[in-house]
Design brief:
28% of the residues lie in helices and 32% in strands. It is α+β, with helices and mostly antiparallel strands.
Length: 291
């Protein structure tokens, strides 16, 4: 339909129609014609894309949020908003309006997290929160976070990510690998193995040394073992670089149905064998729709 045809429709009718799509589609429609552009400014359009509990979320904001329209409020909420005394971050996914959160390191349950011998809390200029958790040295790594499923958007598949980086002096986070999981009750669970650091297992280290020190035949065999170890590690490593300079490792995924009400628990653990590890810096756990 051409622009002249759209101009004959009441703006309220056009607004009602485009409100049934998505924020991404509305922005695309606005570039098509002036009729769409005018209708896209209606509060009734953007009120549909705002979460039903947005007023409650705004009341938990560290700083007041003032916007002149629902459209402006939607796009303000697409940027990170600190809530709950700065221990949690909230935002909307720009394309769909789905709710996203990051739990700060301080809001997580970190075994021995308040024992300076094992963990310390450090302020970082590029951290979303006032402080991050830095691993000094532990043999029992256990990190857990919880969120209520009703805080998330229904009919959406979410994934949880550990947001971290490694200090230059980090050790022991490649072998043995960590176990990551996301669970809700007994019916919904996702568990897999990850490595926050390249595989530094003793067998791989020995293979590398043998390749350097001994004759051609031994070097060839050691090299094959090292390649096999590299391939195994690559299948397990999930740490990816982010645009903000941090890394993320997926802990698992979970589908949230409409009206779902339960506790979602996310965890990263390595508690077997007494292997010591250090140099892990944790900003928090992020929960966002699965790409």
């Amino acid at each position: 339909m051409g622009e002249s045809g759209m101009d004959r429709l009441p703006e309220g009718c056009v607004a009602h129609a485009i409100a049934l799509t998505s924020p991404r589609d509305v922005c695309r429609f606005s570039a098509v014609s002036s009729a769409f552009r005018s209708a896209a400014a209606y509060d009734t359009v953007w009120d549909r894309f705002l979460p039903s509990d947005y007023r409650s979320i705004l009341s938990r904001a560290v700083r007041p949020v003032v916007c002149s329209s629902k459209r402006d409020l939607f796009f303000r909420l697409c940027d990170s908003l600190l809530i709950d005394a700065g221990k949690m971050s909230f935002w909307l996914e720009r394309s769909s309006g789905a709710k996203c959160y990051m739990l700060s390191a301080r809001s997580l349950s970190i075994t021995w997290g308040d024992t300076p011998q094992y963990w310390r809390w450090v302020p970082l200029s590029d951290c979303r929160f006032s402080e991050a958790a830095e691993l000094v040295n532990v043999c029992w790594l256990e990190i857990r976070g919880k969120i209520q499923s009703r805080m998330l958007s229904g009919r959406t598949t979410y994934a949880a990510y550990l947001i971290f980086r490694l200090a230059d002096w980090s050790r022991g986070l490649g072998h043995p690998p960590q176990e990551a999981s996301v669970t809700m009750g007994v019916q919904h669970s996702s568990t897999h193995v990850v490595r926050l650091q390249p595989n530094d297992s003793p067998s791989r280290v020995r293979a590398r040394r043998n390749r350097i020190r001994f004759g051609p035949l031994v070097r060839w065999g050691a090299m094959m073992l090292e390649i096999a170890a590299d391939q195994e590690a690559a299948a397990e490593e999930v740490g990816d670089a982010r645009d903000d300079g941090w890394m993320e490792a997926e802990l698992g995924e979970l589908y949230i149905d409409e009206g779902e009400d339960g506790e979602v628990e996310m965890s990263l653990m390595e508690v077997r064998g007494g292997h010591w590890k250090k140099g892990l810096i944790i900003q928090g756990i992020e929960i966002r729709p699965k790409a």
